[in-house]
Amino acid sequence: MSQKARTLHAQLHLLDRQVVHAGDGRLVCKVDDVELAAGEDGRPYATAILSGPLALGPRIGGVAGRLIVATTELFRPEERPAPQRIPMALVSEIGSAVQVSGDPPEAALERWVREHLIAPIPGSDGGGEAQDGGDEEPPAPRPSAEPEDGNRTRLAPLLGRRVLDADGAPVGQVADVQLTQDGPLLEGVQNAFQVSGLIVVPRHTGQLFGYERGPGGQAPALVKTIIRRLHRGSRYVAWPQLASPLPDTGPIRLSARLAELSSLAELYERDTAG
Amino acid sequence: MKKLFAVTLGILTAFGGFVDIGDLVANALVGARFGMSLAWVVIVGVIGICLFAEMSGRIAAASQRPVFDLVRERLGPRAGLVNLGASFFINVLTLAAEIGGASLALELATGVNYLLWVPGVALVAWLVMWRVKFETMERIFGLAGLALVVFAVGLWLLGPDWGRLAHQVTHPPSDEGVPTYWYYAIALLGGAMTPYEVFFFSSGGVEERWTRKDLVTSRANVFVGFPLGGFLSLAIAGCAATVFLPVHAQVDTLGQMVLPVGLGLGQVGLALVIFGIFAATFGATLETALSSGYTLSQYFGWQWGKYVRPRQASRFHAVVLVVTIVAAALVLTTVDPIKVTEYSLVFSAAALPLTYLPVLMISNDPDYMGDQVNGRFSNALGTVYMVLLVVVAVAAIPLMLATKAGQ
């Protein structure tokens, strides 16, 4: 790649965005989670967008989250149901919405509601302007399973994980995962987004809103100041500073000391300079 | 010329569609008890709704993303779900109040008990949402709501002592407690800034396929239509202040609320005001029912909207249908619609920051907005309102308990 590879922050730029079909503008789903596979050097890269209650439930957590998962599993015919996945190779744009091509299957609930409630009501076919190709029904929901090859993990469980430095001293917890589009080629069309760093905040102070990563345009000054103040001391951990590839559970250990980590403001300055 | 016509039509629609059962009840109650001493809250509320509706309209035009998309995206799934629960609950309460209001207007017109009208109102509302095109629907009921201008005409013909009304603005009546005064201030603010208004406004922008070219229309609606609607709210309060305040009468039925217009304008006025109230509450019935569908669909990423055929947005239409039935059932329990309105206003006020904070943040995000990000003025004013809304949200429920809901 000649120009600088695109960098995203998963939580800020990818998770919870609307997925839209690039062809007919159909609203497909949300990016409820992102599936990761380990690359050659153990660096995970994004393989698919996961959606549906089985991806959203664990992120909500608590009683509500478990209920969402349990209810869905009750109605799914598969042995071990998995969330719907849309391969990252089909993603054509990540902006205020995520555009995907191909034929994403319809959600099972949508089809059930249509067949049993909406379609029998007279006039369900009228009104509204037909979208391009809107007469064709989207493909039927299909059972989805984890892909056979290799271990797949999810991105969201990385958020909130504790981070310890080389001496075992706590650095804080992961608030966001930086992805860079320089990973392996996906189906020969585009490079995968690969984990290139972590953003670690010292305290449990809620969500990052992007303000801690430099100006990035205008901002309501007071809101920005409050959020920056809450997240002061936030650090950027580059991939080489990790002691080992990301463990599935437990705290993430670094090979660097706390003092060697760069602050988020430096990350921003580097981004604009580059 | 055609553009000018479209803009004017938009303004009139926004004007006529601004007042709903919440504004009507809050302003009439407050006018009767506090005169014009809470007029400033209406003005603060109208400026606030203009500010945030303009931002959400701009976001919809620049990125085709409606407000609840932003709520989920910025607050994350957990806080987003809390907001969804709160907004949805308030929406159902408001919807019940609007259905009740429309039925009460029919009772005033026909003398037939409002409970008998409830199923009919709900059914017709659902049929409109099922079949009528979004733009047609919004236009018809917005324009019909213009009949409420008779409140302003009525106030004029009542010939109040304008000097005394002006005097009331700065002098709250001394026989009311301070907590009660603030409780009603919060209810009025909740009425003017109800979150469903921005859900509906921004989703409507997406339904009508706004692009950057439509920013003029969006801004004209907001900056001319909404303040005119706010002016109507003040006229409603003025009418109540003129007729009821001097005799210390409490206003607690819709029949009393329209009385001043009858006194000023006679039977024709009375007929017009009842028609106006019906149009306004029926229009708001559609807005709140659709907003319930919008919020839920936009949180979960479902296909929504009236711009596709109902069978292409099955889950959305199912939500709208179920919510309409539930709200109608709630009114049929014979709970007083006016009381439901009062409670929904205060709960709305408590939920305001959860919705408006993400709007303020996204309207600064160049990812979404391109070159249409907020200017300094919008940001400064937006921040002031955020502080205000947080204070209001914290105070709303305790004040409700302390004043026994304004007793």
Automatic annotation (TrEMBL), chain B:
Task: Enumerate the Pfam families for this protein.
Answer: Nramp
Principal localization reads membrane
Question: Where is the protein localized?
Answer: Membrane
Keywords linked to the UniProt accession: Membrane, Transmembrane, Transmembrane helix, Transport
Regions crossing the membrane: 38-60, 81-105, 111-128, 140-159, 181-201, 222-245, 265-286, 316-335, 341-362, 383-402
Task: Report the InterPro entries cross-referenced here.
Answer: NRAMP_fam
Topology in the lipid bilayer is annotated as:
Multi-pass membrane protein
Quote the protein name from its UniProt record. NRAMP family divalent metal transporter
